[in-house]
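User: You have something folded?
Assistant:
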Amino acid sequence: MERVRRCLSSDKCWPLCGECEEPILHAIRDCNAARSTWLQILPAHKTGSFFNYNLLDWLELNLQNVAGTNGGSRNWNHLFGILLWRIWKNRCKFIFTGVSWSSEATLKAAQAWARPIFTRTSNLPNNTNQKSRNPGWIPPCAGTFKPNTDGAFNPSSKAAGGGGLIRNNNGEWIVGYSRNIGHCSGLQAELWALLDGLHLA
């Protein structure tokens, strides 16, 4: 539906699964292409709950490292976010180029992106302060890009905003964005900023 509204296609239905009314949760989790990718990483006992949450709860629980973890790793929230972005990116690639990725290739790419984060966090002592946990920006692999997003809100008024930027492996600014989100929680502001970044990427 959204592709037709934006004049990207005359066909309302998504060609990989035939779904015509496609909400965002279907696109990133419930579509066969997305679902098969998530099933590659989820332990069997987690699949039931993982696919039953609504969009906001699903994002919140996984980004807080509570639901759907692959064996309880404290790095699940990182892998979840990267894999989510990779699934969305693959859908866009298929729409514009006709190239589709297998679930195995999608997961392998996401794990490669997540590996530097896992390595850095696994070497940190539990009592490391906030300053040393964030030593600086870590560039992505050569020939790739890295998004950084952030959201903020005023606890009193609930007014929120978000933004971000995308840089290449040399740290060069490619594109940036920001906007007034309205009234929401801090976590929702972070999620909106992330979603805006995914649309931009």
User: Anything to note?
Assistant: The chain has two domains: 23-122, 139-201. The CA atoms of residues 163 and 196 lie 8 Å apart. Strands lie at 145-153, 159-168, 173-183. The radius of gyration is 18 Å.
